[in-house]
Design goal:
The protein is an alpha/beta fold. Helices cover 29% and strands 23% of the residues. The protein is built from 11 helices and 18 strands.
């Protein structure tokens, strides 16, 4: 069976298990995923704000349907390919949360002509002018949000730069549609503990709430005030003035999130299934067919207190072995070893045995695969397959 073209409406054979899948492949524990989604949704419901999930990690309509509050959205995307794919499956309310390149506005206009409320994001006068020009050419106003820099992490208008914020707002209000402001607390991924995460969350909130107030005081509309990062979404104590929260990796979690205390290792819903193909016993190595082509080259835990190598190794039920990691990886070979400094012992794994490897970065690892093989809890049974896509 070619799982890259698998139709998820077709039931898998009853005998399809983790033991019978071709490896390496991507495994999704639906039980953990559902628990993660419920955890954040309940938290935000209690704080009176809506969740606009970021679908950049999932890139799958089957996952999207489980995390969105309604079939039509709202949702956040990071590529126009995502917007087009999800629109084809009925999602109608999306923010394209990457600064808009003027050359991409034709695709935005095309999607909007099909009834999709796709909002663009920008932080420069040049982008605002391009959106206004595209709106005039299309004869319909394109909604845009102004990105606010809350921590110097990457991009956005510094909230203290009142003149630039107002000038961009005036261009959009006159020639397009000013939908609001948004920000992303990228520095929250540095960790720092609970107190520091709460500080990141409050800085994130204040930056956009103050920016929205400035726009309104200048006679401009600001109906949407949007914040978003998985760490701050789990640590914010006060979301007064915020209308929505965007977060994405919380659906699956990963070792980076566990390393900064946002989740536990047993919350991580994604893993790569790999098969043992050899040993280098004198070196203390077990070799698998799960190299960096299946795990990705992301080494996001390398600067954390616990370096997880290329991934944390688990048994087939998804239980992590003590201090056993993918210590190195080549294109199609993974090298399993004991974490440096640990007195743990390698598991007794023979050629042909299988392991599941938890990823450093769920987005990067999932991007190496075209199918989620869905299991539930410690079961080896593969319930179904959900296709995922890539591209821009």
């Amino acid at each position: 069976m070619d799982l890259t073209t698998f139709d998820p409406s077709t039931r898998l054979a009853a005998t399809t298990t983790l033991e019978t899948l071709e490896t390496p492949c991507l495994v999704l524990d639906a039980e953990r995923m559902d628990r993660n989604i419920t955890r954040l949704r309940n938290r935000l419901d209690g704080m009176g704000v809506s969740l606009r999930p970021h679908l950049k990690t999932a890139k799958s309509i089957d996952v999207a349907r489980r995390v969105m509050s309604a079939p039509e959205g709202p949702a956040t995307v990071s590529t126009l390919k995502e917007a087009e794919k999800f629109a084809a499956d009925g999602v109608r309310d999306m923010i394209y949360a990457v600064g808009i390149a003027p050359a991409k506005l034709a695709r935005v206009v095309e999607l909007r002509s099909k009834g999709v409320d796709l909002v663009v994001v920008l932080d420069t006068l040049e982008q605002a002018q391009a959106v206004a020009a595209a709106s005039r050419d299309a004869g319909k106003r394109i909604p845009a949000m102004i990105e606010i820099d809350c921590d110097g992490h990457r991009s956005g208008v510094v909230a203290a730069n009142h003149a630039q914020l107002l000038e961009i707002g005036k261009i959009l209000a006159a020639g397009a549609e000013l939908r609001g402001v948004l920000t992303h607390a990228g520095d929250s991924y540095k960790g720092g503990g609970v107190a520091e995460q709460k500080r990141y969350a409050e800085a994130e909130r204040l930056a956009v709430v103050d920016a929205g107030r400035l726009l309104r005081d200048g006679g401009l509309p600001c109906p949407v005030v949007s914040v978003g990062s998985t760490p701050t979404a789990h640590h914010a104590k006060d979301l007064t003035g915020v209308t929505e929260v965007r977060a994405g990796v919380f659906v699956f979690f990963d070792l980076v999130m566990a390393g900064i205390g946002i989740c536990q290792v047993d919350d991580i819903a994604l893993s790569v299934l790999a098969t043992v193909i050899g040993h280098q016993r004198e070196k203390g190595w077990i070799i698998t067919d799960g190299g960096w082509m299946s795990l990705s080259r992301d080494r996001g835990t390398g600067k954390q207190a616990v370096d997880q190598g290329y991934g944390l190794v688990c048994d087939l039920e998804g239980n992590a072995y003590l201090d056993i990691i993918v210590a190195d990886a080549n294109q199609e070979h993974g090298i399993i070893a004991v974490r440096p400094g640990s007195d743990a012992r390698l598991p007794d794994l023979a050629v042909g045995d299988r392991v599941r490897i938890l990823p450093n970065h769920a987005c990067a690892t999932a991007a190496q695969h075209s199918v989620y093989h869905v299991v539930r809890g410690g079961s080896h049974a593969v319930e179904t397959c959900w296709p995922r896509f890539g591209g821009w």
